[in-house]
Each structure stands twice: as structure tokens, then as C-alpha cells.
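[agent] plan:
  1. take the single chain provided in the ticket
  2. run structure prediction with default settings
  3. attach C-alpha cells to the ticket
  4. add a short note for the reviewer (M.T.)
[agent] executing step 1
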Amino acid sequence: MTIQHKLITDPDLHEPKGVAAAVTGKVYVSDGAGSGDWEYPPGKAHAEIYIDAGATTQTLSGSSAYAKLNPTGEWAAGVTNVLTVTAGSGTITLAEAGNYMINFWCLFSTASLASGTNYNFKYNLDGTNSTRTITVQKFTNGSDKLHVSALGLVTATAGQVLSIHVAGDGTSSGTNITVLEAGLTAVKL
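[agent] step 2 finished; step 3 output follows
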């Protein structure tokens, strides 16, 4: 007697195909066409790097050029799962293809420069800066403590490396900033 698979009832049902080789923590996601894939559920793949009580200066590149925000020895690894952090270089490797929510914030001190001087930040994937710029501006002529933060969504391919890059403007390029506190997180959606 032949029984169609779709008519099998509960006590005779079996796990989805591929369960024996599925990685711990992955779930089966149907593709709507009678098949599917094993994937981490949203939020399972995540990572954080941060700077706590930073004291190392970073000189901004000249001519308003962007450089990785990486005061030597300041980044530390935070909570991670699935994604890989390289704290020593201020990066998070996005291990799986997909959409990620990224969050960045930074508190830094500036040199004594003119009020209105700008500091610009961008996220960077594999050496390519985003077209989006987050700008914060000095409010006095003295040394200021400035805060910047951003939240966004980015589509990545497996293995791309995420970092934050910083640049000054015509006035602040070539001067130092000191990152006092900072954080960068990535969460696969």
C-alpha cells in the first residue's frame, strides 16, 4: 500500500531532511517550494566590540580621508555568538550572508580647534566605506567631548569584515582624537 508523504500523521512524522548534519542552534526554514535550509534564527548570530576608558590618541588622516577607527590596543571583545571579532584591529567578521542590524556609538575628546569643526564616521565592509555619513560638530573653540551614534541595516555576504572609519574636515584632518568609550555591534536579522 502506498501512502503519500503529505498524508502521514503525527506519530509517524520524522524530522526534516538534513537534521543529522545540522549545526547546533540552527533551525529549518522552509522556502515555500517544498524544501528549505538550516539557518540560525534571527538574533542568534551577533557580536560586539567596545572601548572602555580609552586613553590612546588617533591622528585623523589628512585631506579629510577616512581611516579605520582603531586606537591601538583599545578595542575589546564583548558578547559574541557565531560572528567573529578581532578586537586588536577593531573588526567584526559577518560569518553568514544576510541582513544585519549594526549599531555604533562613540564618545571622544578633540583637540582645541574652531567651533563648527566636523568629525565624520562611516561603517565599512571589506574596505568599502558606506555612502552614509554620520557627522558630529564641535561646539566650542576648546577641547570638547563629543558623542556620536548611529543604527542601521546592511546587507552582507558571508565573511565580510565590518569596521568603523573616521575622518575630519578641512580643519580637523591631521589632528588627534581620543576615543574614551565606544561600541560596535552586529546582529543578523
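[agent] step 4 note for reviewer: The first strand starts at residue 27 and ends at 30.
[agent] ticket updated
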